[in-house]
Amino acid sequence: MTKPKIAPSILSADFNNLGNEIQMLNESEADFIHCDVMDGVFVPNISFGMPIVEHVNKVAKKPLDVHLMIVNPDKYIEAFAKAGAAWLTVHYETCQHLHRTVSEIKKNGMKASVCLNPHTPVFLLEEIISELDMVLLMSVNPGFGGQKFIPNTYKKVKQLKKLIQENNPNCLIEVDGGVNYQTGKELIEAGADVLVAGSFVFGSENPQETIHNLRNS
Fold first, then answer.
1. How far apart are CA 165 and CA 160, in angstroms?
2. Among 65, 133, 176, 193, which one carries the catalytic annotation?
3. Is 65 among the residues known to form the active site?
4. How confident is the model at residue 1 (pLDDT cuts 50, 70, 90)?
5. Nearest to 116, CA basis, from 142, 90, 92, 80
6. Cα–Cα distance between 78 and 152 in angstroms, integer?
7. How far is residue 24's CA from residue 119's CA, in Å, rounded to a whole number?
8. Binding site residues for a divalent metal cation, as ranges?
9. What is the edge-to-edge ordering of all strands in the sheet holding 194-197?
10. From the annotation, which residues make up the binding site?
11. In b/e form, how buried is each residue of 60-76, taking b as 16+ CB within 10 angstroms?
12. Where are the transmembrane segments (predicted)?
């Protein structure tokens, strides 16, 4: 079985010590650095925006995987490209013209990803899946770290894997929320490629070891 890619979410990092946290991730086996951008409108929390992503990018040696949990994401595509995002994820639920949004992401030199909330069915991506580089499945309701994993996610990963294999085999499946050694292992078995982990990594005694173990669990 192929080892999963690991994308630690800096939402759970120590922001008083952010430069050192990013340096720690640089030296770890992490594949991406996951940046959760929240606006307090689409989700009930506010996190950070372009300036933090820009500062992280100055230190980071891993690609920035930026997840926009915001309304009107189209307004900020170019700004996040300039800030250093390598991957940009928008929510299906916030995009009126999803094909146009995905095209704009690619036009700005980033990999395009679409996120589905726990209640949003996979089949809604049938008409856009061939255009995507990645799909992010939320395995908790977005907005806060440290939530309990929603078991129905395993079924959604399998459904999405089938859709991808039939239409766009290079598209990755990323899962975010409640990822630990047990859920991570089962998600990979179901077909996931990328695991996002925030509090599980940054709350552990040895985050680099936790990242290593997640990759090899």
1. 9
2. 176
3. no
4. low
5. 92
6. 35
7. 35
8. 34, 36, 67, 176
9. 5-8, 194-197, 172-176, 134-138, 111-116, 85-91, 64-69, 33-38
10. 9, 34, 36, 67, 143-146, 176-178, 198-199
11. bebbbbbbbbbeebeeb
12. none
* Residue among 97, 101, 102, 40 at smallest CA distance from 71: 40
Q: Look at residue 145 and tell me whether its pLDDT is greater than 90.
A: no
List the beta strands (DSSP E) in 47-121: 64-69, 85-91, 111-116
The verdict on whether 14 is a catalytic residue reads no
Q: First CA to last CA across the chain, in angstroms? A: 11
Binding-site residues for substrate sit at 9, 67, 143-146, 176-178, 198-199
1 C-beta neighbours (distance < 10 Å), count: 6
Lowest mean pLDDT among 48-52, 59-63, 120-124, 163-167: 48-52
CATH of the domain at 82: 3.20.20.70
pLDDT in tens, 7-30: 999 999 999 999 999 999 999 999
pLDDT tens for residues 201-216? 999 999 999 999 999 8
Model's pTM, two decimal places? 0.95
d(CA 112, CA 107): 10
Catalytic site residue from 36, 39, 65, 193 = 36
Output the average pLDDT for the chain.
95
The parent domain of residue 174 ranges over 5-216
Domain count for the chain: 1
